[in-house]
Design brief:
Layout lengths: L1 H8 L1 E6 L13 H6 L5 H16 L1 E7 L7 H7 L6 E4 L2 H7 L1 H5 L3 E5 L1 E3 L17 E3 L7 E7 L3 H6 L3 E2 L2 E2 L1 E5 L7 E5 L6 E5 L2 H4 L2 E4 L5 H14 L3 E3 L1
Parallel strand pairs: 5-6, 13-14
Antiparallel strand pairs: 1-2, 1-12, 2-7, 3-13, 4-7, 8-9, 10-11
């Protein structure tokens, strides 16, 4: 209920990539790392280190793509086996809700690409490419992702802005060097960003799972309708 209440208050919770359940989220993958063996050792170390730093500076909110109801897999994995709820939105609503962050160059919306990390290569043309790549074990999730990357000038664009509860981002000393600072999330000790959004414009509907008790459904419905958002049962 915490994330629902937070969203209804106007805060989109975005977790840092290295806090996702997949420990390889945002990493290069074994196949790509093996390609770096052709480069000098110091170059390989530098690239791998920078990709690791980027994971700590990227924050994501993931959305299941479906024209109808969430798939059975998603209800089972993320909806408490139908004893939870789903937030329904549209690509247009999501883009509108986060347009200010996208416009300044720190926000990106894209579809997730699912790959076999041990076999498939990841492109090294842009460090953000791997932040939209997930192991094929999770292919049933069929995700689109809104990503905020706070590296370099992107963090400077966001610094000073207020999230729902305090600063949107903060600066701290980077772990791998003595003099360079990095921009991290301003919420939960740097592990999350709480982006301000208009819940009524972002949420099209809240769908409550079929196994949710009548009392809990009534409670969720009351909270959601109070904000002026439709609420229904699965």
């Amino acid at each position: 209920m915490f994330k629902l209440d937070t969203l209804l208050e106007g805060g989109l919770y975005m977790a840092r990539l290295d806090r996702f359940k997949d420990p390889r989220e945002g990493t290069l993958g074994r196949k790509t790392k093996s390609l770096l063996d052709k480069a000098p050792a110091y170059v390989k170390r530098y690239i791998i280190r920078e990709y690791g730093n980027a994971r700590r500076q990227s924050f994501a909110s993931c959305w299941h793509k479906n024209d109808g109801q969430p798939s059975e897999y998603v209800w089972e994995e993320f909806g408490g086996k139908h004893n939870g709820f789903a937030i329904r939105t549209t690509p247009q609503k999501l883009r509108e809700a986060v347009k200010s962050v996208v416009a300044c160059g720190a926000g990106y919306i894209g579809n997730i690409v699912y790959k076999k990390h041990n076999i498939d290569e990841n492109k090294l043309t842009n460090i953000l490419n791997v932040h939209f790549v997930v192991r094929d074990d999770f292919e049933d999730e069929k995700e689109a992702r809104f990503l905020i990357h706070t590296f370099g000038p992107h963090g400077q664009q966001l610094y000073g802005q207020e999230g729902l509860k305090g600063q949107l981002v903060k600066w701290r000393r980077r772990r791998t060097t003595a003099v360079i600072h990095e921009c991290v999330g301003g919420y939960r000790r740097g592990t999350a960003i709480l982006l301000r959004v208009d819940a009524r414009n972002l949420i099209a509907e809240v769908v409550v799972g079929k196994r949710v008790s009548r009392a809990l459904f009534t409670d969720i419905e009351r909270r959601v309708l109070k904000v002026g958002i439709p609420c229904s049962r699965e």
